[in-house]
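Budget justification, computational time. The allocation requested in the original proposal was used primarily to generate structure tokens for proteins on the priority list. As evidence of use, we reproduce two of the resulting records. The first is shown immediately below.
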Amino acid sequence: MQATRLTLICHAATAAQKQACFADDESLLMDWQGAERSLAGRYPKAARLVCGPEARTRQTAALFGAQPNIEQALRDLDLGHWKGQAVRHLNSDELNAWLTDGARAPHGGESVDQLCARVGQWIKSLESQPGHVLAITHPFVIRAALLYVMRCPFSMFYLIDVEPLSCTELRFNARWRLRLETHA
């Protein structure tokens, strides 16, 4: 049986990230059109290129290939009325509740538990689809994927740093594994 390979790429940097704001549907900081297909040779055998529906993931996907398929399961965490807000301007009690309880969504959007369930269902669906999937998505989605694959508790969610354009390799062959590779 052929293995499933899932490469999760975090979208390129945005102004919201640089300003410690929660994301809205903002564009990338870089000239993504001028750099289009600049990373296309990095994963030449990728069978499927997918991305979340937001502008920042679609623009990053353009660096890797022509037309990605939009995958709703890869959409960013719905942050409700916190979208576009600077972290420093949020109610500290609400923010602390959200950071310590995965079931809480004081912003009126999606809880981290809901995000993890959504991402886990999508990853499980890939188990019967061998081949390579290159997925351009968000830091929260990549954290959720790692919690699912590594079977970690919610308490680990905020201990994972996901940098712009970072790559996370996951492989499925009877069980999911995190694969660390060298690019030397």
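The second record produced under the same allocation is shown here.
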Amino acid sequence: MITALYASLCALWIVRLSLQVIKLRRQHRVSIGDDGHPDLQTAIRVQGNATEYIPITLILMIILEWSGSPWWLIHIAGIALLAGRFIHATALQRNDGERRVLGMKITFYLIMALSALNIFYLIAGYFFAD
């Protein structure tokens, strides 16, 4: 299962982002919310954004993998997912709007492509099944 590799790498990325939130919460002595600290607000959104987009993308990837898609296509999707989420997170942390948009575009186009591929495999399987 190729998607397991990318799910594991994404999980480690989310842990890394979560540790950054925890570090800033301790530093600012904030247990809930952000208490108006811009760096904590950003860290919370970076973590939140990852947890919003990574799961649906991984679900689409595993469905595509189960549909018999070529192994290389799953790897391309996984690499794109990691790249898009990394670019977005680092750009958001650095207040780099241009790279942030690039990370978002990679993620959105990937979700749309995976959705289209899953629909294609579903239709192809329905009409061309043995």
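A brief technical remark on that second record: The two ends are 24 Å apart (CA to CA).
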